[in-house]
């Protein structure tokens, strides 16, 4: 995949050039490109003067980071405790079946990526599904397909 | 910010800076009995005192807003709704221990909390409440935000500090305490969001006022996230010492659909499940620990008779297996094996000897793990084994899941009162249901994956789980 890497400079400029900024920079990169492109990691390593191996180990340790590209819309199914006992498994099953992918995968047309997260902090309206940046609460089976209607 | 000042905001800061010495502040907090709301329940004032008394070039104050406990969102609402209260608490802590720099570690899933805190910090900097010579005194303090990146173990103090420094968040052995050698090896006070937000009020109204709320050993109030199968879900702030029954029935309005109560889970992945016979237990740090659960950060998840307790134990272990940092073997491998055993039981292949195996292994994991994640990881399993052994036995001996949850042990059937509304046919993702309009439908058992979709959509209670 081709990316416009000029944006990286803007990201780097926001932070002091120390290792303390590493996670924040990776988060901004993840936000910009939806994942951490290899080239961006190399540049980060150069700019911060942190060994590439360290950049990789941080990138793989934390759940928020992904080294593979994601679809246009990321669908997050909350599987936190409150959502779990209010039927998150069933929603996951339905979404996996409907999109024909497993959690963690992306549809072939790159439209949707399905993810599970442990609690998005909206437990009072469990079960919760987040599509893009929109939170859907008290999700019922009958609503599942509408959530991921390709627009 | 104006609103915050309108409700006496930053008066406590002014009071400590102008009228109190750091030691007086610490004594006031110790005297108030304020205990850490992040789980451990350690006296906040004592922690500050240890930190202050260590000679070092720098001291740090960190606010723990990681809130990893799935099913809890108290800290989120505090950071979003009262960011200045958190900042003021941190400033007072910093003044007490002599810190010039502070960090707030916020969970990645809470973008709005970050936005609100950033704005609050900026407002304080502009009006001279953060920065050099605050309120004309020689107290200087600055606060930065560090965003987490989705790792539960980073709520643990030493892992959190590594993460703030931009490293992989692996905990280290606890014989070196982080109040002594924390962030960048300097003495560091780490307090939970809710702990800190209590501080300004204590300073303003005095320790004696604070002590008058709650119980002798657990003073003040606690915020809980009351969720699960309860009628009124949401956040509640209650005085310590209130009973679980009052919380669930008086405040929570009882169980959803008036089903029977089964258990309430507190303390998140490190806590346990409390059965009905203990509903009159007062909620405070020590009582909960005594019964094998813990206060934790305040998640309170109510379960009814359709929640399978073995499945809940399996759920927590799966979570912990995912989140174990992998540094030490008992936690990494032990939790993995415990999870495997639970999977075996849920799939109907369990043997009675597995229970004993799980008990032994749990003990070893608790003894052998480095940090709190492993040390308390088997709690959800141990507590359910203790109070709900029958349900384990039903899975193992009778090959039945009484709650109708574990797919391998249940079947779905359509009863004769089916109206033939056809709602379940498209809901089933596996083409397992056949039927015509106004005729009783039938489930083809070989195709049925026991996902429960038909049960969830049926409006006529026509689906039987057994
Ligand atoms: C695995 C693990 C996860 C933790 N997660 C959190 C958390 O999400 N939030 C929190 O405030 N404390 C958490 N803690 C507790 C902290 O290590 C620490 O005790 C606490 O933040 C201290 O603040 P307090 O004294 O104000 O409670 C966790 C501990 C462990 C072992
Ligand atoms: S107990 Fe588990 S989470 Fe804690 S240090 Fe060991 S492996 Fe890591
Ligand atoms: S458990 Fe799903 S939002 Fe908290």
Strand arrangement, major sheet of chain A: 2-1-3-4
State the end-to-end CA separation of chain B. Answer: 57 Å
Strand order of the largest sheet of chain B: 6-5-9-7-8
CATH top level label of the largest domain in chain A: Alpha Beta
Number of helices of chain B: 20
Largest sheet of chain A: 4 strands, mixed
Q: How many individual domains of chain B? A: 4
CATH fold naming of the largest domain in chain B = Rossmann fold
What does this protein look like?
The complex is a heterodimer of chains A (151) and B (466). Chain A has helices spanning 7-13, 22-33, 38-48, 52-61, 81-84, 88-99, 141-147; strands spanning 73-78, 112-117, 129-131, 134-136. Chain A is α+β, with helices and mostly antiparallel strands. Chain A has a 4-stranded mixed beta sheet with strand order 2-1-3-4, covered by helices on one side. In chain A, α1 (7-13) runs antiparallel to α2, α2 (22-33) runs antiparallel to α3 (38-48) and α3 crosses α4 (52-61). Chain A is elongated, with a radius of gyration of 17 Å. In chain B, a hairpin with a 5-residue loop joins β5 (221-228) and β6 (234-239). In chain B, α2 (11-19) packs parallel to α6, α3 (22-32) crosses α6 and α14 packs antiparallel against α15 (352-368). Chain B is of the alpha/beta class. Chain B contains 20 helices and 13 strands. The model of chain B has no long low-confidence stretch (mean pLDDT 93). In chain B, the strands form 4 sheets. A 5-stranded mixed beta sheet of chain B has the order 6-5-9-7-8. Chain B has a 4-stranded parallel beta sheet with strand order 3-2-1-4, sandwiched between helices. A two-stranded antiparallel ribbon of chain B has the order 10-13. Classes of the chains: A alpha+beta (151), B alpha/beta (466). The interface between A and B is large, with 45 and 55 residues. The complex binds flavin mononucleotide (FMN), iron/sulfur cluster and FE2/S2 (inorganic) cluster (FES).
């Amino acid at each position: 995949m081709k990316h416009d890497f000029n944006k990286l400079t803007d990201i780097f400029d926001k932070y002091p050039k120390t290792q303390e900024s590493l996670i924040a920079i990776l988060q901004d990169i993840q936000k910009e490109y939806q994942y951490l492109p290899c080239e961006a990691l190399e540049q980060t390593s150069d700019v911060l003067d942190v060994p590439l191996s360290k950049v990789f180990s941080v990138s793989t340790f934390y759940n928020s980071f992904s080294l593979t590209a994601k679809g246009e819309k990321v669908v997050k199914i909350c599987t936190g405790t409150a959502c779990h006992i209010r039927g998150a498994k069933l929603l996951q099953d339905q979404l996996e079946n409907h999109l024909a992918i497993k959690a963690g995968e992306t549809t072939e047309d790159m439209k949707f990526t399905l993810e599970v997260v442990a609690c998005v902090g909206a437990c009072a309206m469990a079960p919760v599904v987040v599509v893009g940046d929109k939170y859907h609460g008290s999700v019922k089976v009958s609503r599942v397909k509408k959530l991921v209607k390709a627009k | 910010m104006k609103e915050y000042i309108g409700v006496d905001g930053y008066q406590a800061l002014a009071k400590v800076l102008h009228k109190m010495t750091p030691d007086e502040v610490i004594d006031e907090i110790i005297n108030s009995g304020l205990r850490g709301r992040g789980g451990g329940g350690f006296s906040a004032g004592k922690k500050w005192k240890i930190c202050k008394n260590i000679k070092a070039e720098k001291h740090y104050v960190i606010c723990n807003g990681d809130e990893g406990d799935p099913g809890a969102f108290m800290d989120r609402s505090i950071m979003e709704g009262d960011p200045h209260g958190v900042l003021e608490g941190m400033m007072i802590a910093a003044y007490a221990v002599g810190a010039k720099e502070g960090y707030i570690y916020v969970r990645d899933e809470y973008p709005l909390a970050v936005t609100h805190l950033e704005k609050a910090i900026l407002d304080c900097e502009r009006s001279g409440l953060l920065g050099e010579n605050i309120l004309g005194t020689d107290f200087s303090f600055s606060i930065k935000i560090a965003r987490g990146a989705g790792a539960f173990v980073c709520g643990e103090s030493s892992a959190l500090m590594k993460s703030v420094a931009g490293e992989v968040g692996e905990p280290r052995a606890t014989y070196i305490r982080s109040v002594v050698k924390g962030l960048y090896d300097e003495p560091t006070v780490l307090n939970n969001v809710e702990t800190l937000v209590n501080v300004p009020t204590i300073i303003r109204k005095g320790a004696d006022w604070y002590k008058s709320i709650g119980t002798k050993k657990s003073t003040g109030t606690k915020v809980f996230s009351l969720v699960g199968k309860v009628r009124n879900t949401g956040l509640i702030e209650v005085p310590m010492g209130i009973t679980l029954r009052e919380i669930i029935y008086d405040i929570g309005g009882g169980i959803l659909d008036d089903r029977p109560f089964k258990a309430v889970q507190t303390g998140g992945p490190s806590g346990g499940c409390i059965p009905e016979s203990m509903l009159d237990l007062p909620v405070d740090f020590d009582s909960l620990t005594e019964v094998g659960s813990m206060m934790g950060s305040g998640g309170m998840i109510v379960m009814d008779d359709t929640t399978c307790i073995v499945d809940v134990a399996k759920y927590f272990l799966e979570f912990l297996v995912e989140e174990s940092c992998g540094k030490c073997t008992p936690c990494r491998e032990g939790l993995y094996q415990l999870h495997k055993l639970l999977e075996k039981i849920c799939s109907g292949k369990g043997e009675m000897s597995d229970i004993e195996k799980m008990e032994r292994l749990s003990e070893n994991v608790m003894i052998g793990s480095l940090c709190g994640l492993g040390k308390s990881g088997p709690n959800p399993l141990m507590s359910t084994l203790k109070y709900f052994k029958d349900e384990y036995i039903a899975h193992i001996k009778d090959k039945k899941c009484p709650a109708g949850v574990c797919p391998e042990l249940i079947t779905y059937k359509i009863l004769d009162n089916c109206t033939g509304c056809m709602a379940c046919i498209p809901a089933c993702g596996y083409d397992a249901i056949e039927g015509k309009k106004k005729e009783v439908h039938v489930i083809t058992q070989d195709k049925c994956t026991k996902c429960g979709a038909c049960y969830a959509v049926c409006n006529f209670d026509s689906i039987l789980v057994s």
